[in-house]
Amino acid sequence: MMGRYLSTHTPKIMVLLIFAIDKEGLQMDGLDVLHFFIKQLAEVSPNSIKYVMSQVVAAFIPSLEKCKVCPSVHLSKIVEILEELVKNNSLLEQHIRELPLLPSLQSLSEVNKVIQEARGLMTLQDHLKDAVNGLNHESLNVRYMVACELSKLFNARREDLTALIIGEDIAHLDVISSLIMALLKGCAEQSRTNVGQRLKIVCADCLGALGAVDPAKVKVVSCERFKIKCSDDDLIFELIHKHLARAFRAAADTTVHDSAALAIQELLKLAGCQSSPSDESYRGKKLWDRFSDYVKEIIAPCLTSRFHLRNPTDSAPLGPIYRPEMSFRRWIYYWIRRLTSHATGPVLIFLVHAVELFGMICQLQSISYHTWS
């Protein structure tokens, strides 16, 4: 199954598999293929399992919750997959401990035991740190899963949480500040899906549970502003590293995934990045070296992809680009398309088309605007 290239194509494969297991008619086949895929990935690239682990668990939780009321014929296969992910995986203990305990089903007892052992004796501060990381995950489903677990934690340890908030320990206050910022981002979730709307509500509930924290104790991290006047390569790096790679990794459907891939492909092509080092320009190598290894692995398929727009000459809509009933997203998309229609010169056209695709992705899916640590 593609051998050593399997990890490179993991994002696209996961999009298709998560879609399949969410459809009743495809669920059994989707679970069989997912199980096989995880086994193969563990063989050729064990380290890549950590990037799919949370996505798989988040995709399974709704089905597992239903199993408490009405057992599913797919439960045994889901348990097999979860055991494949967490058992005999000491290298991924740090990532296993970030998973939530699964619903209390007898068949899941071994999986929950492994998760509990990986967690060990975690303090409330440890739980909150993991929650901050989870709320900043690129996958919407994972962020929602983490927010739900955080809400349960707040209800179970309300007195400990209050003591942490009113205390004067700087380390504790830093965690609370990071948590508040992550929850505020969750409340501003841009996805219009049901999960996105539920995430907003859960994050708002969590902020309510935190209560009125003394503003003097909260460190508000201002959003990093990107300079409008910058080089083409700085803009390309910003678009790919902070936005497009995240959308590419966390896409919930093939349209978003392919749109992100096309935008990344065109930007890399513009910068002179090539799959073969001998063909790569100095400019392309310099830009490529700026990306972290994690991002390089995500976007590597875009060096050899051959995506193209179906109607690249499609003109922008005529007339006003704003109407009273129009959403901000729709307006910004039309505005970008109008700008594209006025672009001149090969470099500018390439760049603006990539930005237009980024605008289309914003229409289709929420993108969290923060960098990887």
In short:
With 373 residues, the chain is mostly helical.
Spans of at least 5 consecutive residues whose pLDDT stays below 50 are: 363-373
Which geometry do the CA atoms define? globular
The quaternary organization reads as: single chain
Largest sheet: none
Strand portion, in percent? under 5%
**Averaged pLDDT:** 79
Sequence of secondary-structure elements: HHHHHHHHHHHHHHHHH
Count of helical stretches? 17
Structural class call reads mainly alpha
Number of strands: 0
Our measurement of the CA-to-CA distance between the termini, rounded to an integer number of angstroms, reads: 31 Å
Q: Which radius of gyration do the C-alpha atoms yield?
A: 22 Å
Helix content: 55-70%
Description:
- This protein has helices spanning 10-21, 27-44, 49-67, 75-86, 93-96, 109-119, 124-135, 140-156, 158-166, 170-187, 194-210, 232-250, 254-271, 282-290, 293-299, 328-341, 346-364.
- With 373 residues, the protein is mainly α.
- It is globular and about 60 Å long.
- Residues 363-373 have low confidence and may be disordered.
Helices and strands in order:
Blueprint (H helix, E strand, L loop, with lengths): L9 H12 L5 H18 L4 H19 L7 H12 L6 H4 L12 H11 L4 H12 L4 H17 L1 H9 L3 H18 L6 H17 L21 H19 L3 H18 L10 H9 L2 H7 L28 H14 L4 H19 L9
Helix pairs in contact: 1-2, 1-3, 2-4, 3-4, 3-8, 4-6, 7-8, 7-10, 8-11, 10-11, 12-13, 12-17, 13-17, 16-17
